[in-house]
Amino acid sequence: MASYEDEDHTQDYLFKIVLIGDSAVGKSNLLARFARDEFYSNSKSTIGVEFQTQKMDIDGKEVKAQIWDTAGQERFRAVTSAYYRGAVGALVVYDISRRQTFDSIGRWLNELHTHSDMNVVTILVGNKTDLQDAREVGTDEGKALAEAHSLFFMETSALDSSNVKAAFETVVKEIYTILSRKVM
Ligand code: GDP
Ligand code: MG
Q1: Which residue windows are transmembrane per the record (predicted)?
Q2: Which ipTM did the prediction report?
């Protein structure tokens, strides 16, 4: 869904990016932290928000990321194909303190590739690094899985903000780079 909006002078890009991963890994809070610099200690953040459009400056160009949140659909294993449609980027999230959420990553990648373009720019995100004492998934394991699937990789904390901006920016920058190569 990359599109030109202003034919006169500036190129205005709009990228659809989806958040996926098991329930309660912190998807809604990653988005809340990135878009509004907010954090919710309960799951209130999940309710209602369908997507959030965030302006970003990439190489002096204004880029808009339209970031979609599952809004709790994943609880019922019912993320619709409409959710994925037109996505050019994805953050596939697990919780470093719950191995089960890491074990689900393969299933989420399958679902992503079933419903969207194979070339969707994807980052594997291990969230909740602030919970070091409860860690069940090593950084090296995350890194290895990402390498095996040719994904970007980052560990984040929506709670203490670490790497949140960087994770979203990594995806948007890569999409922008690929697109500008195609246009030129
Ligand atoms: P979602 O179901 O994937 O959207 O997950 P939520 O964003 O609703 O978060 C689920 C729970 O995990 C909530 O209680 C959040 O407060 C908590 N949470 C989210 N991100 C973090 C984080 O980085 N660190 C910690 N400690 N808790 C988090
Ligand atoms: Mg949510």
Answers
A1: none
A2: 0.99
The pTM for the full model equals 0.91
Which ligand lies nearest the alpha carbon of 23? 1
Spell out which residues line ligand 1, taking CB within 6 angstroms.
23-29, 40-43, 45-46, 127-128, 130-131, 157-159
Q: What distance in Å separates the CA atoms of residue 143 and residue 178, rounded to the nearest whole number?
A: 23
Q: Hey, what domains does the chain have and what are their CATH numbers? A: 13-182 (3.40.50.300)
What are the tens digits of pLDDT across the range 66-108? 999 987 888 776 788 889 999 999 999 999 999 999 999 999 9
Most informative mutation of 33, 43, 163, 164 for ligand 1 (most atoms within 8 A of CB): 43
Ligand 2 center–CA 125 separation, angstroms: 15
